[in-house]
Design a protein that fits this description.
two-stranded antiparallel ribbon, 2 strands
Length: 93
């Protein structure tokens, strides 16, 4: 379980992991922004980044296939929004 001692005030609805999916997307496309990445690469990197269970679940719900950055962001944002997690964890671009 993650330590919540350094968590912001209760009025801040963002999780400590806010923005972690953006970091994942940035890492996937750091070397070649125009390449397509297979779903498996996204899942493996998410596990490597030790994302929280909610975010791993988002990534694992990606449909099979390869993704260029914009399509991956659209898919992730759709899953995040459908689960009501956008304000807690943020969306990606």
């Amino acid at each position: 379980m993650k330590n919540t001692a350094n968590k912001p005030a209760a009025s801040d609805p963002h999780a400590d992991e806010y923005g972690e999916l953006q970091r994942l997307v940035d890492a996937l496309f750091a070397v070649n922004p125009s390449k397509a990445v297979p779903r498996l690469d996204v899942v493996v990197l998410a596990e490597t980044f030790d994302l929280c269970d909610d975010l791993v679940d988002v990534v694992e719900h990606l449909p099979a296939g390869s993704y260029k950055r914009q399509r991956l962001c659209d898919q992730l944002n759709s899953i995040i929004t459908a689960r009501g997690l956008g304000f807690v964890y943020g969306t990606v671009e």
